[in-house]
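Summary for the lay section of the report: proteins are chains of building blocks that fold into shapes. Here we show the chain for Fluoride-specific ion channel FluC and then a coded description of the shape we predicted for it.
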Amino acid sequence: MTLSKILIVFLGGGLGSVLRYLLSDSIARGLTLKPFWATLVVNIIGCFLIGVASGLIRQDSLAKYLFITGFCGGFTTFSTFSAENVHLWQQGQYFQLLLYIFLSLFVGFLAVIAGKLIISY
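The coded shape description reads as follows.
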């Protein structure tokens, strides 16, 4: 790994993290949703974007490090997803917990496939 790749990942990750914060905050406030629903929406968008990017970027390039590793890695967040699951569990909100897990995994999976399919046509 070269210094230029590290800096590109750093830049992409920072941009992705800031955009995730702004978008999830806007979704939660604008639609008056609980934070975990905003995280779900952002993670599904991120899954779709990584599907598109992986369909477009097929080589070991700086674009891959900037967008896939950096931006999408910073934009989506498994740690927040996991912490929100624990919170729902501790609050006894078992239906929302199971729905959130299912939607995150299943719809996220489908979003990656959709992103790849759109690029292949």
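Put simply, here is one thing we learned. The chain has a mean pLDDT of 92.
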